[in-house]
Each structure stands twice: as C-alpha cells, then as structure tokens.
Amino acid sequence: MSWKLLPPEARVVSETETAVVRQVTSHPSIHHHPFFFVDAWDAAGRFLVFLSHRTGAPQIYIELQDSGELVQLTEEDSLAEWSVIPSKDGAWIYFVSGQTGKRVSATDGTVEELVSFGTAEMREDGMVGAAMGTTALSASGRFWAVPVKTGAVSRFWLIDTERQSAGIFLERDTIGHPQFCPDDENLILFAGPMTDRVWVTDRNGNARRIFEREHSLQWITHEVWRPGHRTVLFVDWPNGMGEIDPDSGGVRRVTDFPVWHGGPDYSGERLVCDTNFPDRGLHLLDLTGVRPPQFLHAPEASSRGDHWAHPFPYNDGPVKVYAPQHTHPHPRFSPSGDEVVFTSDKTGTAQVYVAQLKS
To answer: What pLDDT does residue 190 have?
Structure first.
C-alpha cells in the first residue's frame, strides 16, 4: 500500500479570453496524463490522474481537486505507464505492472492483483500504437480488456473485475489502442496493423473490420468512440477526420481541420484536439458542424515524431520511429466538459496542465 501526500504544485500560467491554464505538476521529471482517449478524472471530478517519474520510475499519482494536494498511489518496479485507466466511479485505477494486471484504490492506495499473464513479453517493440500498451475499461468498470503480446500473436485478455476472473477471448497479429464503446459494453474498438487499422470485437472475440482505407497512401490513425452516437471518429492524417457507423459501415467526413489527437466530450458534441506539422495549438471543434474550429491554447510541446511530417511510412511493414509519447499534448476533456487536460514539455520536462474553459 502506498499513500504519500504531497503539497500542491499547481499554479496559473496563462489566462486568455478562452481559458485559464494552470500547471498541475512542477517537479523536474517526466509527467503526463493517461492518454487522449482515457479519462484523467473520475466522473465526479474528485481527483485528476497522472503519471510521474519523480521517484526514478513511473508511478500513479492523483491531484485532489478540493485541496490541490498530490498523492502518490503506487510503488511499482515495472509499471506500464500507458496502461493506466481509472474507473468512472473513482474507486479503482487499473494498470499493468510487469506481467500482472493490478488495480489501486484511489482512496487509500490499496493494490490488488487481478491477473497474471505468465511469461509473455507483454508489448510490441517501439513507442507508438500497440507498443504503448494501452488498456480498456468498460463504462461500468466491470470489464477490463488488456492486449498482451505473446510470441508471434497478440492475445486479448478480458478481466471480469466483479467476479475477478480472467481469460483470453481473441488472438490477432496485433491489437492496439483498445477502447470499450461508452454506449455498449459488449463492443470494443481496437487498432489492427497500420495498414488495416479499424476493427471492433465483442467480448466473445467476434472481430470484424469496420473501415478499409481507400488507397496505400491514406494514413488512418487515432480512432476514438463518439459518446452518445455509437460511432467511431478517426483521423485521416493530415486531411481531417471521418466518422464510421460500425453497424452499417457508413462513413462520413466530419472536418477538414488537421486533427492530430482528438477526443470528444461526454456529450459527443464537441472535440478537443492538438495539431502538428505545423503546430497550430489546441483547438475546440464543434462536431455538429455549426461553428468553426476555435483556438484554445498553445501548449508549445515538442511533439516528437518526425515521421508525421512525411507520407504514410508503414506500407512495407513496421518502421522504427522516435516519438516519446510524453512530448505530445494528447488533450482530453473533463467529465463536466469545462476543463481540458494536456501535457507539454515546454519547460524542458513534461508537465501536466489543465485549461479551465471560459463560457
């Protein structure tokens, strides 16, 4: 058990007509929030989840929203920092550590081991896609889905957090960026190979492709569910975003704005995104198409990953790229929709920031 209370580090760093921005962390080490399609807050907004390397290894921390105090929740030797995902009710934060799946209580730091994955290597090599090791948690918090690289295949594990049982329900060549549909706990989005990205499966392992790219230079990436609509938003880099109906297979163009990572709010009516090559800053997009994109803030992150400046590089197989994920903003709305969390390394080390939106 780990529950180390630390003093607040937050300070306001800018204020514009659009937002008040505060820097949540200040220790000169790597920090970041979970990811652009992973909640950083519990649904009630009691705490903000982030990862910090201040002890020499990534650990899970929270910022208590009533006091601003920071709490270190874990002391793990081999925590997979991009596997972290909190339950909406705020009871648990799930994560992979070494070859085990665990959860930590956000109220007292109690850690429970839920599953052992055996001797698997866990993740693919690299810094992007399936190599990150992101995991998925259903809206109720009952089901946790974890891709595990095991030799030549990726095995999709499903953990029933209520019964505390676990098993493999799907095997594929690669499984990346899994996400439970917020409106259907029996539907999971996942990324296949870079040339064949957009797939869904049910919890029984009935997988199906829901989108096929139009030509060999089309770069499909950064898929995310649109809440309340049961549809999938995807980036057609760098040409904008599309939307897929996984039932009918229908596809429509959402915007020509060059979204990089884009996450919708809980209503599915707005989206916040970062940009790159060129970096235009964070923007708010109206998914109903009524209002034009609105500039929110310039995070000034280094956003490493030079491959994004060039044509699609993966047609001949995997490519080694240098793209440390903590250098990317990865903006994400709060459950209330009035705040946006993002990461920036503009100070020299990656820190967590929150933009309080002005109406």
So the answer is: 98
Asked if residue 160 belongs to a domain, the reply is yes
Q: What gap in Å lies between CA 217 and CA 88, rounded to an integer?
A: 38
Pairing of strands 198-201, 207-209: antiparallel
C-alpha span between 100 and 111 (Å, rounded): 12
Give the C-alpha separation, 200 to 40, whole Å.
24
pLDDT tens by residue, 29-39? 999 999 999 99
Q: Does 346 fall in a domain?
A: yes
Calpha distance 61→70 (Å, rounded): 7
**Alpha-carbon distance values, 128 to 74, 82, 102, 146 (Å):** 25, 11, 23, 16
Question: Strand 136-137 to strand 143-150: parallel, antiparallel, or no bridges (unpaired)?
Answer: antiparallel
The residue segments making up the domain with residue 24 are 4-307+321-357
Mean pLDDT over each residue of the chain, to the nearest integer: 96
Q: What is the pLDDT of residues 246-295, one digit of tens each?
A: 999 999 999 999 999 999 999 999 999 999 999 999 999 999 988 999 99
Digit-coded pLDDT (tens) for 54-105:
999 999 999 999 999 999 999 999 999 999 999 999 999 999 999 999 999 9
User: Residue 1: pLDDT above 70?
Assistant: no
314: in domain: no
Q: Is pTM, for the whole model, over 0.90?
A: yes
Q: Is residue 8 part of a domain?
A: yes
Q: Strand 100-105's sheet: what is its strand order? A: 85-86, 92-97, 100-105, 111-116
Per the structure, the count of domains in the chain is: 1
Q: Which of 258, 256, 281, 257 is nearest to 340 (CA)?
A: 281
Q: Which CATH number do you get for residue 143?
A: 2.130.10.10
